[in-house]
Design goal:
The complex is a heterodimer of chains A (123) and B (106). Chain A is mostly beta strands. Chain A has no helices and 11 strands. In chain A, the strands form 2 sheets. In chain A, strands 2, 4, 5, 6, 9, 10 and 11 form a 7-stranded mixed beta sheet that branches. Chain B is mainly beta. Chain B contains no helices and 11 strands. In chain B, strands 2, 4, 5, 6, 9, 10 and 11 form a 7-stranded mixed beta sheet that branches. In chain B, a hairpin with a 3-residue loop joins strand 5 and strand 6. Chain B is globular. Classes of the chains: A mainly beta (123), B mainly beta (106). At the A-B interface, strand 5 and strand 10 of A face strand 5, strand 9 and strand 10 of B.
């Protein structure tokens, strides 16, 4: 079965750090660009970061640039998001998403989503 | 960044109704416009990509149209499983989503 499974969410204090993981299965993980999209409680969707299949090209939204780092280990079929200097505005469900096509970089057609992992930033 | 807006923010409709949701971009995104459906507590699912191409398995009652800055998602005959929130998303320049339109049961 083709799926993505996130983990690593939880409660963290402002200023703290957290690392999210996303394990892919059922597809050629290294062939696809991957992204993280988050959704604050009751709010809309925000793309925050993406990486090419080879991990050579990474992109970040301004809201997380300099604080978050996306990377992947294709041998483990796992995508990561290292989140530092977390603030209350980072509270959200974080989704791992896969591109629809085998393309060199992020194209923004998010075909497969994980179930999401909740990150809560609170004192 | 390209800003996306949607209207209405919510609507009430009955099974069998025709529903239209509008999405507008702050600048032209060509036909790089996708639509997602999200049900409560679930991850979004891609419905339509490149403005009007239905993802495999999506019922034909869904359709998309538009270009440039103005786009439309239409559900021709609303079914019980279609009550959800719909998001548009542009993939022309970076990747931004609209705020969503919640389709509720009348």
């Amino acid at each position: 079965e083709v799926q993505l499974l996130e983990s690593g969410g939880g409660l963290v204090q402002p200023g703290g750090s957290l690392r999210l993981s996303c394990a892919g299965s059922g597809f050629s993980f290294s062939s696809y660009a991957m992204s993280w999209v988050r959704q604050a409680p009751g709010k809309g969707l925000e793309w925050i970061s993406g990486t090419s299949g080879s991990d050579e090209i990474t992109n970040y939204a301004d809201s997380v640039k300099g604080r978050f780092t996306i990377f992947r280990d294709n041998s483990k079929k796992t995508l990561y998001l290292q989140m530092n200097s977390l603030g209350v505005d980072d509270t959200a469900v974080y989704f791992c998403v896969k591109e629809a096509e085998v393309v060199p970089t992020i194209r923004g057609r998010f075909e497969l989503w994980g179930q999401g992992t909740l990150v809560t930033v609170s004192p | 960044d390209v800003q996306m807006t949607q209207s209405p923010s919510s609507l009430s409709a009955s099974v069998g109704d025709r529903v239209t949701i509008t999405c507008r971009a702050s600048q032209s995104v060509g036909t790089y416009l996708n639509w997602y459906q999200q049900k409560p507590g679930k991850a979004p699912q891609l419905l339509i990509y490149a403005t009007s191409t239905l993802r495999s398995g999506v019922p034909s009652r869904f359709s998309g149209s538009g270009s440039g800055t103005d786009f439309t998602l239409t559900i021709s005959r609303l079914q019980p499983e279609d009550f959800a929130t719909y998001f548009c998303q542009q993939s022309y320049s970076s990747w931004t989503f609209g705020p969503g339109t919640k389709v509720e049961i009348k």
